[in-house]
Amino acid sequence: MTKKSIQKSKKFDHSKAPLYEALCLYEETNHISMHVPGHKDGRVFDKAAQHHFSNILKIDATCIKGIDDLHQPTGSILEAQSLAADAFGADQTFFLVGGSTIGNLAIAQTVCGPGDKILVQRNMHKSVFNGLLLAGAHPIYLAPAIEPNTMTAMVSDIRYIEDALAKYPDIKGVWVTNPNYYGMSQDISRLADLCRQAEVLLIVDEAHGAHFGQVEEVPPSALSMGANLVIQSTHKMLTSLHMSSMLHVNGDIVDRKRLARVLGMIQSTSPSYLLLGSLDLARRYLVEQGRNELKETVQRVENSRKELKTALTSLTIWAGSPKVHRRDPLKWIIAAKDGAAVSGYQLHDLFYDEGAVAEISDPRNIVFLFSLDEKEEDIDKVVNAIKAVDQQLQEPSFIPVEQKEIIMFEAEGTLYEPKISLQDAFNKQYHKVKLDESIGSYCAETVLPYPPGIPLLNPGEEITKRHIDTIKELFEMGAYFQSPSDDSMETLEVIK
């Protein structure tokens, strides 16, 4: 928990959940619904599924008397967002009902206009690039650092960002992902100071770090380190419903009126009050008991991780790296020793058969994700699954596969501005060509191995042999590509 939020918490009653309480009051009044939604508080609904949905349908309300409006909050939503800002150490917090994707789209269109330049870490989620495309911005790409054991991308060294700021003094801000999908967190305090001196925004996609800064046992939050705009997927690491997130703002450098206007444009005018209410409850749960549970869970998970580390023969569990400032103890990164015998995609299937479903798989690793409150028996189930797979890999019947090195990005610190902007590339005419024939052309689609949703190619980027080799290798290993123009990955759409 940040010092800032500790000081502010004295003014707020976190035992309240004003938005959820307003929804409960709506249910208690038992008025006849002559308004949307059409299920009429659950009276008209599929009978076979009603036992699952009946309770929540009664509070699946809309913006009527007594229930606040997300786009012009003056009552329970305003109070709920203020409580959230206090809990997370922000000056202002916006509730989101379209996941962090909506937050990234809103940030891009708030910060940038047509032709504006912004420095963007190249290992960003696709929603960041989509937002910049819609804004007509011209991103300057900065290749990320690579953690050598897991080969995962993270924030590049500050000297590269400093050089980029010197080269592009007219940029609107610096946009990074911290932590990455794997829970690796860098100290961005110096970066925040650098951006402050340059009078540009520091924007942090902290989708996987909503719990950061809440206790000392986890890494500090981006807000506590000086970021101006921070997006968090509250549903990922905390307890709100899927698709519910928060966008936090710090400082006066952010145009909050414009941000609110943009959110009003891209968020539904009929937002889910179930999602909004769950954000309110996630904040209350975190403050009232989640922080204590998080402390205890970290201790249990760390004890199990240390014991597991010495028990494994064929697998490894990542324990940190000199290149990583802090790791999230709620994420376990599992890989084959030496990264040689088994791909992460194979491991995902092996663990699935053992009843343990991983959060993510990649060419080398899988990631298990723990929550705020994990009991010994549940942790033990994961440990037993890991030991079972470790044993399987030692059996003579197991057939290893050749592991190839996958290169997703240029060398750390490489700085480049695509010759064709995202929006121009999206709007140009295109045609399909075979993979090998696409080298030297400009990409017209997003080539997206998923998860974690980081594009290998964005519209407007020049296609190189490295890109083509990586596509082929990923496809052969069983990687999933989201929404490709060709499911077989034998062709690509390129600009005519």
UniProtKB/TrEMBL annotation:
Name the Pfam families for this protein. OKR_DC_1, OKR_DC_1_C
For this UniProt record, the keywords arranged alphabetically read as follows: Aminotransferase, Decarboxylase, Lyase, Pyridoxal phosphate, Transferase
Q: Which GO terms describe its molecular function?
A: transaminase activity
Q: Does the keyword Membrane apply?
A: no
Domain Orn/Lys/Arg decarboxylases family 1 pyridoxal-P attachment site span(s) in chain numbering: 18-316
Every copy of the Orn/Lys/Arg decarboxylase C-terminal domain together lies at: 415-470
Q: Specify the domain of life of the species encoding this protein.
A: Bacteria
Essential cofactor(s)? pyridoxal 5'-phosphate
Indicate the family of this protein. Answer: Belongs to the Orn/Lys/Arg decarboxylase class-I family.
What is the designated name of this protein?
Aminotransferase class I/II-fold pyridoxal phosphate-dependent enzyme
